[in-house]
């Protein structure tokens, strides 16, 4: 069987989770009950050639990214799947002119939450064969 290694970057920390396709499929079935889910790559693969496997990998990557992009609040089952224990709440948008000196240092710090995953540097062209 094939295992997909998922790179998770959260608050500057990186970790990896390894998941089989069946685990993605089980996640998809659970998520459908709570959110509108994107298409998941087909469960059935006719042949296990590298090109087909790469298409499946890209499809699963797109699936995860779409769930993240389209949901302000991610369901707990999704976070558990990615082995993310705690998601800090995003600071509420503040109206202009509310940046006064009395604001606590903590609440004025922005938290950055990267959403897209690149397995290679997107700005470097692949080497020609």
CATH topology heading of the domain at 3-82: PX Domain
Number of helices: 4
Number of strands: 2
Strand order of the largest sheet: 1-2
Q: Tell me about the biggest sheet?
A: 2 strands, antiparallel
Overall morphology: globular
Query: Could you name the CATH homologous superfamily of the domain at 3-82?
Result: Phox-like domain
Return the structural class: alpha+beta
CATH top-level class of the domain at 3-82: Alpha Beta
Cα radius of gyration in angstroms:
18 Å
List low-pLDDT spans: 92-110
Helix content: 25-40%
Distance between termini?
Answer: 29 Å
Q: What is the correct CATH architecture of the domain at 3-82?
A: 2-Layer Sandwich
Mean pLDDT: 77
The H-and-E topology, N to C, reads as EEHHHH
Strand content: 5-15%
Subcellular location: Cytoplasmic vesicle membrane
Organism: Buceros rhinoceros silvestris
Pfam family, one: PX
GO molecular function: phosphatidylinositol phosphate binding
Question: Could you walk me through the main structural features you see in this protein, from its secondary elements to its overall organization?
Answer:
- This protein has 129 residues and is α+β, with helices and mostly antiparallel strands.
- It has a domain at 3-82: 2-Layer Sandwich (PX Domain), CATH 3.30.1520.
- It contains four helices and two strands, in the order ββαααα.
- A two-stranded antiparallel ribbon has the order 1-2.
- A hairpin with a 2-residue loop joins strand 1 and strand 2 (13-20).
- Mean pLDDT is 77; it is low at 92-110.
- It is a peripheral membrane protein.
- This is Sorting nexin-24.
- GO terms for molecular function: phosphatidylinositol phosphate binding.
- One of its GO terms (biological process) is protein transport.
